[in-house]
Design a protein that fits this description.
Elements (H helix, E strand, L loop, with lengths): L3 H15 L30 H5 L8 H4 L6 E5 L5 H10 L4 E6 L2 H14 L4 E5 L12 E7 L8 H11 E14 L7 H11 L6 E2 H11 L2 E12 L2 E9 L7 E5 L5 H13 L12 H6 L6 E6 L5 E9 L9 E8 L8 H15 L4 E6 L4 H9 L3 E12 L2 E11 L6
Length: 411
């Protein structure tokens, strides 16, 4: 979590604001250049003056959050409340906005501003961004303005954001990052952090992407908004929790899923229409043949039961094929025709593009029409037929070769 010094600093700023002082969370020379504070907003008309003056962020997450009427929003580190009030305006009376802050003084300041604005769809919560005081799958959008970089456990923050988001929910935050693999004098970089006043151990761009992937997010986009020198940037970070039907959730595959994943695999093999294989491998054999970063399951949110999975294998170790994978997708036989396979495959496609994959391949028996229709609906095309390529249960069978070329990655 953010350390006591950080919470104390922001509490002091809140107390100053409560007494009517003008507060600045970042160095004065950074204002405007990096869209810090109220300078990052163009729609503050009608807000309490104090809420605008107390804005301490490094950007405007609402510029990309695309909030819709009736949605539920969570603002991590809500501070004086400017993003909470703007969100409440956008989601309307049928929507709901939670503001969370670790500083009781900031919460008092935000409540004053909410009362002044006359909003009725806002609830302000005391807590840390590493342990959110909200139920699983309870919000549609998570926003934050230059707060995640203050946490000592950023992996926990991002995992918690994934937990409280509903399937299809969106993550859209402003934050501070550092360049990947750029050698910079630590003292000079620390000086930049002090100058902008909004950085305490920021993630690299690659590090941010990896934590989002580990949590289960897909569709990751990190957009630079300001360059502060020495490899330090303000950014907008966007990602999505994979969408799926009610009562289900798509998340990364775990070792604890082994028994259920292999049982679903075996049920598919027993159908005679999934593969030339007849017996599922051991878990060790399964994991050895699959890429560790492209494995997902669909699970029942009440029981935790796995009802389907998707995973990828490397096509070749040659560098030229680094962006080419072969995938498999299996759904529990009792849960087919519920859109689970489509949701898994859509999530897998998004995750593969995040990972730089430009071609996804697979082989499908011509008789497996359901699989063929599913793949074609999601952009796969038949590129050829391997005739009588193998004998399966005494019958020589053809295999349709399908592939999907990414439209998001130049290939």
């Amino acid at each position: 979590m953010a350390n006591d010094e950080t919470v104390g600093r922001y509490s002091s700023l809140a107390r100053a604001a409560l007494s009517g002082e003008r507060i600045v969370g970042c160095g004065s020379e950074a204002l405007g250049e990096g869209c810090f504070g109220a300078a990052g907003y163009d729609d503050t008309e009608g807000l309490p003056e104090g809420a605008v003056r107390a804005s301490l962020g490094c950007g405007n997450p609402l510029a990309v959050a695309e909030l819709r009427a009736g949605e539920t929003v969570l603002d991590l580190g809500s501070g004086g409340g400017i993003d909470v009030l703007l969100s409440a305006r956008r989601v309307g009376p049928l929507g709901k906005v939670y503001g969370l802050d670790a500083s009781l003084d900031m919460l008092e300041l935000a409540r004053r501003h909410a009362d002044q604005a006359g909003v009725t769809n806002v609830e302000l919560l005391h807590g840390t961004i590493e342990a959110l005081p909200l139920p699983d799958r309870s919000v549609d959008v998570v926003i934050s303005n230059c707060v995640i970089n203050l946490s000592d456990d950023k992996a926990a923050v991002i995992a918690e954001a994934f937990r409280v988001l509903r399937p299809g929910g969106r993550f859209g935050v402003s934050d501070v990052v550092t360049d990947d693999g750029v050698a910079v004098d630590p003292g000079r970089r620390e000086a930049v952090g002090r100058r902008i006043g909004c950085m305490a151990g920021a993630l690299s761009v690659a590090g941010y992407r990896e934590l989002l992937r580990q949590a289960g997010f897909v569709g990751v986009r990190i957009t630079m908004t300001a360059d502060h020198g020495e490899g330090v940037h303000s950014v907008i970070v966007q990602a999505v929790k994979p969408a799926i039907g009610p009562g289900l959730e798509i998340r990364p595959m775990r070792d604890s899923d082994a028994e259920q994943v292999l049982a679903i695999y075996q049920a598919g093999l027993d159908s005679g229409q999934a593969s030339f294989e007849t017996v599922a491998p051991s878990w060790e054999g399964f994991t050895a043949g699959k890429l560790p970063h492209l494995r997902y399951v669909a699970a029942d949110t009440e029981t935790g039961e796995v009802v389907g999975w998707v995973a990828a294998s490397r096509v070749s170790a040659r560098p030229v094929y680094a962006g080419v994978v072969e995938h498999s997708v299996y759904v529990h036989p009792g849960c087919q025709a519920h859109g689970i396979g489509r949701a898994l495959l859509a999530a897998f496609i998004a995750a593969s593009e995040d990972a730089g994959v430009w071609t996804i391949q697979s082989g499908i028996f011509p008789e497996n029409t359901a699989s063929l229709v599913l793949h074609q609906a999601l952009g796969f095309r038949v590129v050829g037929t391997r005739e009588r390529v193998g004998c399966h249960r005494g019958i020589w069978r053809d295999v349709l070769l399908v592939e999907r070329r990414s439209t998001a990655i130049a290939s």
